[in-house]
Amino acid sequence: MYRAKFATKLAVGMLFSVAASVIALPAAVAQTRLTNASNVVNYAGQDDAFLALRNASRANKADMVDGLASVLSNYDIPSYVDYYRLKPRIKDLIAPESEIRDYLTRYDGTAIADRLRNDWLLELGKAGIWTTFDQQYPLFALDDDTQLKCYALTSKALKGGNVADDARALLTNPKDYGQGCTDLIGTLAQNNQFTQADVWFQLRLAVESGYGNVGRRLAPFLDATDAQIAQAIDRSSIVVARGPGADRAGHELFIVALGRLAKNDPSQAAAALTGAADQLKPSERALGWGQIALQASLKLDPMSADYWRAAQGAMLSSDGYEWRVRAALRAGDWRMVKSSIEAMPSALRDDPTWIYWLGRSLLADGRKTQAHKLFQSIAEQTNFYGQLALEELGQKIVAFSAPSVITPLELAPMQKNEGFRRAFRFFDMGLRFEGTREWNWELRKMTDRQLLAAAEFARQSDVLDRMVNTSDRTKYEVDYTQRFPSPHRDVMSNNTQALGLDMAWVYGVIRQESRFVKTARSNVGASGLMQLMPATAKYVAKKVGFSGFTPDQVNDVNTNILLGTNYLSMVLNDLDGSLPMATAAYNAGPGRPRAWRATLPGNVEGAIFAESIPFNETRGYVKNVLSNATYYAALFDGRPQSLKARLGYVAPKNFTASALP
User: Which of 232, 409, 473, 627 is deepest in the core (most CB within 10 A)?
Assistant: First the structure.
């Protein structure tokens, strides 16, 4: 049941689907008729035509877009009608520049205009129209597109600017590269701002991240052919068996192939590297061990810490730096934890995760004053590691907040806010992506008081996910009742009491799973407040004797909570009462936490177990849920709480919960 993050989507291919929650329209527009050369389509209302327009535009079906847009000339969200009409023609710069500029002027300052500028900039960068790109890029408000950042650096480099350091800092996640970032790497390689070592590093990064196609696009800038790179990626055992060869390219391809081989068998890759050691420079051997160590760490291989020691001095990816620390934590090697964090780039080292663990390594070395200084630097943060740091300072987690009541005067601007109105309009149509974008756009420059007022407006409108996310943004005034709501309390209390289940933990799960959106549906089919998969819901319904259960009942609040709490109880009992493991099981399935536990060298802190979960999503999920649960307990009980107590210890499979310290 490994599930991606909650995201509600409307299938692009369903061009004429009818939204389940279409808003009733006046009789005059109750039926909309679209005539096309090949068909006649009737819609129950303009919202249906709008949904069809959106999907046709996103599918780049320009022939349908104009016809659909023409029947929406009086639609109450004209900026989106015009956007969807224009978007397919932004591609390859088919639309005249004057038309694009006119749109940006008409809807200046709106979220959708910024989105269109993003679309346009991508096409300008792709086409190399740098004068217009350079004029428009500073106007892109969100500036959250890695490809655009790459294009901006390319433009600067082509004008003679030295951008190598900025590029190295930016180019860390090949998933986000696209054409813009591979173009940047090529430009910097051609003008000698990137060395061959830089480009080979990018290839290794792409391959270890699972984006071999990105790595292959770098072939023109390396002393290796596309065929050679493809063989190192796809037929790694052949390349490893052949050995490093005599030239630089052969050595680099051997190192890439070692990493690929280690995905399946780290010990085999380690043996091959040991056998070829005398043919490699010390720096190349370190790179090879780094490639093997990362894959071994992701498998929770007990040898991974030894592999990392052999990789000393290697240039690592962000994942490499982080997993070296995690391997040291699992091995209980606090000196290695300290040295590995200190070797990180500063931007990575400043993350609260590594500030906390560096503090713990200093404590293990008897350097309490320095450790406490680090803990104090993050203890005010209301996140997993902020909470743990607070406990290291001898305090507990509280949820006492008393911001002054939001006044009608403060609430009035939120009620009149056009962006919020559009957001609610989209939510009513089931378009949560568009609604969330509109809502978040309005929050960008708000003060804490304004954010609290916006969150209160969301609460009064029963849009609890926006209340939670908005309130989470405040820095100085905190309203924990907004951040950690507990709706359906009577239903929840009845179910958790009957099962002997911690209600705070269940609310922590719901907050992470659905943010209290009752009709939430993930992109893999999980539904409702507790995001139950269909097969799981059916299984639990049968186990608890829920006769007559049908899949459509899973979005009913009572049913969803009944089945979800029973499933949580089952996995908790199955995993010896360990909250970290049961939480991981709810996200990734019960088999995986059992397998992860089996690799432990002994009893470890729950925080170490959580930090070394090899799935990124599940690792973040466990930390967030247990952080949430601690705040909920503080609210429910009215007294300070311990996150460390909730985390407890996790033992190898041959231990039981009663044997834990």
Answer: 232
Nearest Cα neighbor of 626 from 296, 385, 345, 298 is 385
Q: Could you give the residue numbers annotated as active site?
A: 513
DSSP bridge partners of 650 = 604
Q: What are 134-140's contacts with CB under 8 Å, separation 24+?
A: 140/114
DSSP assignment of 104-165, as one string? HHHTTTSHHHHHHHHHHHHHHHHHT-HHHHHHHGGG-SS---HHHHHHHHHHHHHTT---HH
| Cα distances (angstroms) measured from residue 76 to each of 66, 275, 418, 434, 595 | 18, 70, 12, 15, 54
The whole-number pLDDT of residue 33 equals: 52
Give the residue ranges of the chain where pLDDT is below 50.
Answer: 1-30, 36-40, 656-661
pTM of the full structure: 0.91
Tell me: the pLDDT tens digits for 9-25? 222 232 223 233 333 33
User: Largest Cα–Cα distance in the chain?
Assistant: 83
Q: What's the CA gap between 316 and 324, in Å, rounded? A: 10
- Is residue 248 within 8 Å of residue 273, measured between CB atoms? no
Cα–Cα distances in Å, from 183 out to 148, 158, 203? Answer: 11, 12, 14
Which residue, 227, 329, 217, is CA-closest to 601? 329
Residue 643, classed as helix, strand or coil, is helix
Over 24-80, what HEC string results? CCCHHHCCEEEECCCCEEEECCHHHHHHHHHHHHHCCCHHHHHHHHHCCCCCCCHHH
Bridge-based pairing of strands 604-605 and 40-43 is unpaired
The pLDDT tens digits of the residues spanning 108-157 come to 999 999 999 999 999 999 999 999 999 999 999 999 999 999 999 999 99
pLDDT (0 to 100) of residue 651: 86
Residue with tokens 């929650």: 21
Q: Are 345 and 199 in contact (CB under 8 A)?
A: no
Residue 485, both tokens: 């709501």
pLDDT at 10: 25
Structure confidence at residue 401 (pLDDT): 76
Q: Which two tokens stand for residue 72?
A: 């929406």
